[in-house]
Amino acid sequence: MGISSKVRHGMQQQSWVRRMFELGLEMKQRFGDDQVFDLSLGNPVLEPPPAFIEKLRELLDNPLPGMHRYMPNAGYPETRSAVADHLSRKTNLPFALDQIVMTCGAGGALNVIFKSILEPEDEVIVFTPYFPEYQFYIENHGGVMQLVPTNDQFQPDPATVEPFLNQKTRAILVNSPNNPSGAVYSTNVLSELGKLIAQTESRFGRQIYLIGDEPYAQLIYDKHPFPILYQFHPSTIVATSFSKDLSLPGERIGYIAVSPECPDGKELVDAFVFCNRVLGFVNAPALMQRVVRSILGASVDLNWYQIQRDRLSSELENIGYPLVKPQGAFYAFPQSLVEDDVAFVQELLEARVLVTPGTGFGRPGHFRISYSVPEKVLEGALERLHQVADAHRNG
Prior knowledge:
Structural class: alpha/beta
Number of strands: 12
Oligomer: single chain
Helix content: 40-55%
Strand order of the largest sheet: 2-8-7-6-5-3-4
């Protein structure tokens, strides 16, 4: 009984994603890797782009003095300047290095943000379906997660949001492209959210932040428009990483960018720098900071992901799984063939296909598929998904 009750409870609630991943490892040991089709984990399957390997090799072959020492807790000034310049070109806003904090991935960034802005019992609005770790990130720092459902296209409905806004609301968290649905939130939706935030700030006399979690921002298909979040509210903060666009999740490198128009931007960044240190991150990985600043805008082969998405979407539609076609990221979120999505995921497990129930993302009746898997895994999984659907039709 040595661990805290809070941690014990959290361990019991830990995400379905992690449970399915561990179950997949066990099943592969029992049946063999080629007999288990694991679509449960959002782990980039593509290797990093050549530019990353080239820059990494250059640094290793020609190491700089002090290359692995401490630096300012916000990160190397050169890296922060490079990120700021990149964002200025992308957004047409005057970003500067003192609006950027380098972090240990987007997860580290969100924890730094919530540590900095939340008082006990402050509420953060999160849209379902949602990345399940958000609950722990928010509760880590005394906050309360308020779940708000999206519509049948997985878009937030401002009319649904309004009743959840109150004197305890501190932030609205936007994850677009969305994990698990692949939805990209529209300009109209985000504009209405910005207006709601402004009205609520005026009504209750407290600042409310619009926070973007954008690790999939470069994985957008069909030239679908991706609205720049900063345009919708001055107090906007974006957390992102290089985990998905450069296939570097294990390197834990990302950043926080505060809108140049944020009224308390300087104090906010000072708080992020402090919290980056006291949370134990100290600073983002030194070597990765030096690499990524040279290749900002580079990406893995987006076309490969789009081919995977198109094949999966077409096959699911043909088999009979209702689906909103993903616009970004590398997930699909089809409807379960039975109301109980956990029971249906168990059926798929018996067919040796691993997916994650929608219940784990706050949206029962669906299940998440990651198509960031080798083509053979996707092909084998689709065959089994077809067999399970046929069994339902013939049963």
